[in-house]
């Protein structure tokens, strides 16, 4: 029997995955459900599970920070995450299994089967590889075509991007505005591995710079620069799902 725990800050996500494991992976026994990284760290130390189903996007400490607490982990990991292009690239690079939410039953069975077939042992080298890739990308900068040249910008310094015909205005937290010679769709693709969401045909926002979301007036967000931006009706549900994970 494989002993496992689930670490996810969303109660419904924990309970649904627990049910899926019990229903479709009877060889796995879920010993505990943990609501945050600190609880996960304590539970791993106490129960020493074989397998950890680990969410990435959690408040206070994320899944990578949980792994940092175990320099020589004795457990294996299957990551669970909402679609995040960068995270998935990092998982593949480090040969980690991952499940994209909402988790499909067949994907869960396949991930557990791969775990059973793998040679067991320390995953410390995988963790180091993953953390290196994560830090490299999260600390990195992107190149934006500005005028006749390129400007290097850290994605976390971008508050929002606004379409202006075939160009895009990029508003930085410093208050500076850049005019990129790319369409908003092209800028969205460049930033797809980071925490941005297209809430309107003309607006791409950094979710970490969303101060509040209001359902009145059809739904809008208030950004950290004071800008009020309407959310397109057909994009509202997706925005709420992504924003709730921040």
Folded structure, characterized:
The two termini are 35 Å apart. The longest helix has 15 residues, at 124-138. The protein is α/β, with parallel strands linked by helices and 246 residues long. A five-stranded parallel beta sheet has the order 2-1-3-4-5, sandwiched between helices. α4 (85-93) packs antiparallel against α6 (124-138). It has eight helices and 15 strands. β4, α4 and β5 form a beta-alpha-beta unit. The protein folds into two domains: 2-138, Rossmann fold; 142-243, LytTr DNA-binding domain (OB fold (Dihydrolipoamide Acetyltransferase, E2P), Beta Barrel).
List keywords for this structure.
single chain; alpha/beta; Rossmann fold; OB fold (Dihydrolipoamide Acetyltransferase, E2P); five-stranded parallel sheet; five-stranded antiparallel sheet; 8 helices; 15 strands
Blueprint of the fold:
Blueprint: E1 2-7, H1 11-24, E2 28-34, H2 37-47, E3 51-55, H3 63-68, E4 76-81, H4 85-93, E5 97-100, H5 105-117, H6 124-138, E6 142-146, E7 149-153, E8 158-164, E9 167-172, E10 177-180, H7 184-190, E11 196-200, E12 203-206, E13 210-214, E14 220-223, E15 228-230, H8 236-243
Parallel strand pairs: 1-2, 1-3, 3-4, 4-5
Antiparallel strand pairs: 6-7, 8-9, 8-12, 9-10, 11-12, 13-14, 14-15
Helix pairs in contact: 4-6
Element string (H = helix, E = strand) = EHEHEHEHEHHEEEEEHEEEEEH
How large is the share of residues in beta strands? 25-35%
Count the domains: 2
Number of H- or I-type helical stretches = 8
CATH superfamily of the largest domain, by name, is Response regulator
Shape label: elongated
